[in-house]
């Protein structure tokens, strides 16, 4: 069941005419301009410029690549159609109060109903999270806690799916379903009975909690049709496997974190291809000759490819976010439960993520890797500072000062100059060295070299 989305009813004013028209929100501004010009422009208007643009009164032209919805066009707005070479009419008001009200209403950052919806969804998710935590800390028997938390998670999953599928409220449905993730985790923690509190963190309970969150988020990604749940699913699955490995091998948390960190970082380059597969994007075949090239010409519908591309991009963002969460968690374990080799491994993983972020174009994709990398490096700095003396702390303070100056200089020059390819190549080399160093440093964390020396006598 789908809900029809109403078009935007606006008034378009041309140099010599005006028209009340309904604009479909899925259409881009560039697609609508020829129709508006045909309906409103005269021959004299067409001879007066080299192109046409649509703008709000006193505002910049609307980007032709964005949709009507993306441009923020609302019902009842007045849009102005004019030639590109014609200067915009200056804003002239005969009432200062009207001028202030118009400027305040159209400026960026004004609170709109969409912001209220987002805040309401976020507060709802936090409230459901608080309910799950209250159930976990209630002191009830573990079986009762598991039953209550599991019921809450199932109810939120069904409610989120109903909001997204039946009512077209995809964002609100995703927020409601996200509120069930903590409930699923608490239900997994309490699923194993026995002595101890329901929230006691043991390897077996952590493994089961990770499995429960993986199942829940995988179902949420399908039911709510929100690919960003992939991030939680990936992080929970890897966390569950790591806890299971710790349980079966009786190894230290630092050893498990070292192996997990290496495997996840090394497997990172395979995520874009995995996102293409999960997004069901058609992959082009490589023709063997010109005849095969001509015979493989298959028409592809543009809207379908655009929708699949957006889905694949969201999946990739989720996969990279999950990778970032895993690496940041492993770095935290290495820094606070391991030795100096574990610290080095956490720092190398952080540097690798910081440099790997350059390969991705999406803001969310880069932000996830940059935040996890920065958290790992700053955590290493804090750990070394706590373990060192005054001289070490002064050295780290100077290093951070230099880093801040370099980053500030880069921020000033980044918009004015194209980055030098030599610097890019140098960073590629540093990234390669950081990633290649992960495996031998992880071997030191696991104690492989000491065991080899002892075995060799």
UniProtKB/TrEMBL annotation:
<protein>
    <submittedName>
        <fullName>Type VII secretion integral membrane protein EccD</fullName>
    </submittedName>
</protein>
<keyword id="KW-0812">Transmembrane</keyword>
<dbReference type="InterPro" id="IPR024962">
    <property type="entry name" value="YukD-like"/>
</dbReference>
<dbReference type="Pfam" id="PF19053">
    <property type="entry name" value="EccD"/>
</dbReference>
<dbReference type="InterPro" id="IPR044049">
    <property type="entry name" value="EccD_transm"/>
</dbReference>
<dbReference type="InterPro" id="IPR006707">
    <property type="entry name" value="T7SS_EccD"/>
</dbReference>
<keyword id="KW-1003">Cell membrane</keyword>
<dbReference type="Pfam" id="PF08817">
    <property type="entry name" value="YukD"/>
</dbReference>
<comment type="similarity">
    <text>Belongs to the EccD/Snm4 family.</text>
</comment>
<feature type="domain" description="EccD-like transmembrane">
    <location>
        <begin position="117"/>
        <end position="454"/>
    </location>
</feature>
<dbReference type="GO" id="GO:0005886">
    <property type="term" value="C:plasma membrane"/>
</dbReference>
<keyword id="KW-1133">Transmembrane helix</keyword>
<keyword id="KW-0472">Membrane</keyword>
């Amino acid at each position: 069941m789908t809900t029809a989305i109403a078009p935007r009813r606006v008034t378009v004013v041309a140099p010599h005419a005006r028209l009340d028209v309904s604009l479909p929100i899925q259409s881009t501004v560039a697609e609508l301009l020829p129709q508006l010009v045909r309906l409103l422009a005269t021959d004299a208007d067409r001879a007066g410029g080299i192109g046409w643009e649509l703008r709000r009164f006193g505002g910049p032209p609307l980007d032709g690549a964005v949709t009507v919805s993306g441009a923020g066009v609302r019902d009842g707005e007045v849009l102005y159609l004019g030639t590109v070479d014609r200067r915009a009419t200056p804003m002239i008001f005969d009432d200062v109060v009207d001028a202030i009200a118009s400027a305040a209403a159209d400026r960026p950052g004004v609170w709109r109903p969409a912001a209220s919806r987002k805040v309401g969804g976020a507060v709802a998710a936090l409230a459901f999270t608080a309910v799950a935590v209250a159930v976990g800390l209630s002191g009830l028997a573990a079986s009762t806690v598991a039953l209550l938390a599991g019921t809450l998670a199932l109810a939120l999953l069904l409610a989120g799916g109903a909001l997204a599928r039946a009512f077209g409220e995809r964002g609100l449905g995703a927020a409601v379903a996200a509120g069930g993730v903590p409930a699923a985790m608490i239900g997994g923690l309490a699923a194993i009975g026995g002595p101890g509190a329901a929230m006691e963190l043991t390897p077996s309970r952590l493994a089961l909690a990770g499995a429960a969150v993986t199942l829940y988020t995988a179902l949420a990604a399908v039911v709510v049709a929100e690919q960003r749940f992939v991030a939680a699913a990936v992080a929970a699955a890897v966390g569950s496997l790591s806890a299971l490995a710790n349980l079966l091998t009786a190894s230290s948390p630092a050893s498990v974190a070292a192996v997990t960190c290496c495997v996840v970082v090394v497997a990172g380059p395979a995520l874009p291809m995995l996102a293409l597969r999960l997004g069901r994007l058609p992959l082009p075949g490589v023709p063997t000759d010109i005849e095969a090239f001509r015979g493989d010409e298959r028409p592809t519908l543009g809207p379908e490819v655009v929708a699949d591309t957006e889905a694949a991009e969201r999946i990739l963002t989720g996969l990279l976010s999950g990778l970032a969460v895993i690496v940041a968690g492993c770095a935290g374990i290495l820094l606070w439960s391991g030795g100096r080799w574990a610290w080095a491994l956490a720092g190398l993983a952080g540097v690798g993520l910081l440099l790997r972020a350059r390969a991705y174009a999406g803001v969310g994709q880069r932000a996830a890797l940059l935040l996890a990398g920065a958290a790992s490096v700053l955590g290493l700095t804090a750990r070394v500072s706590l373990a060192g003396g005054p001289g070490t702390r002064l050295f780290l303070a100077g290093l951070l000062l230099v880093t801040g100056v370099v980053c500030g200089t880069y921020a000033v020059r980044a918009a004015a100059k194209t980055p030098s390819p030599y610097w890019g190549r140098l960073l590629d080399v540093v990234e390669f060295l950081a990633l290649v160093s992960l495996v031998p440093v992880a071997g030191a964390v696991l104690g492989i070299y000491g065991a080899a020396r002892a075995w060799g006598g």
